[in-house]
Here is the input.
Amino acid sequence: MQPIDRAVEILRNGGLVAFPTETVYGLGADATSLTAVRRIFVAKGRPSTNPLIVHVADEETARRFAADWPRQASVLARTFWPGPLTLVVRKAAGIATEVSAGRATIGLRAPDHPVALEMLRAFGGAVAAPSANRSTRVSPTTAQHVRDELGPAVDLILDGGPCRVGIESTVLDLSGNAPTILRPGAVTRHEIESVIGRVELFQGSTDATNPASSPGQHAIHYAPRAPAYRFSRDELDPLLRWLASAGGAPISAVLVGEIPDSLTQIPFALLIEAPKVPEEFARQLYAALRRLDSPDVHAILVEMPPDKPEWAAVRDRITRATQPLPA
Ligand code: TXA
Ligand code: MG
Here is the structure.
């Protein structure tokens, strides 16, 4: 049997299929099956207060799962789908309540990946799929990442190669009064505003005990195993003091700009020079965090890219994966 046919059969029987998208790998189940969706939460160890993104092949299918489909949703779907934009709208009946974590809304997107689209078209319905990682861990951008982390908990892993975008989709909430970006991503605020006019940006994060408007807003998310700290170029002095206090313990790091003279003498366990183009850095970010996070590493340092709009999504993910450098 072809992998896509097997995937569809597994989905129809309430199983779990990990599949590639252009952003990250998803852990998919039939969104209309309560038992199938529950398996996602178990496999991920994910709190049930986190709603899941529902994947569809196209706008027409999306509309079946929405109670209403605002004009803005139509314009955005026509402009950005298939692509890394999730639209949160009021949900129709028929979607398992766990998918929306008890909310009246649903997050829908059509992923821009040939394997995902082929599977979704053949399945014909809605596939609920969070990123295919253990809860709070770094999202997978290769099939091997999924195997490493979820292995036997998944019935089938479709391998579509490394993900092109590398970080999760932009999430835009259209269910309230003002369109609001709940999670920045590859589709930028500027691109959305050029299509539907002004949108708000959700700021800040909620603590993990409260159901967040968006699970990506939980402060601790996408975290590597070793303690990870972020710093900016203007914090090189505190960084050097912190490194001195670490007393030679193995530290790995990712730097955005040129390596400053003051750091060239530091014997990092692993030093990754990040790409200077936001889209490139996004594509490599999670794989880099996994490489930096080897078991013998004492801590991970990540340099923040500049505070500019084109870096918003990468800065958001780094902020969630790290803590500020301890004073
Ligand atoms: O790129 C992506 O979006 C990936 C791939 C697999 O498509 N999926 C993903 O799913 O990142 P997950 O479950 O790891 O992220 C859940 C996100 C939350 O951050 C939240 O913003 C959004 O989904 N979300 C889903 N349903 C929602 C709802 N009803 N209300 C608000 N946010 C919702
Ligand atoms: Mg996730």
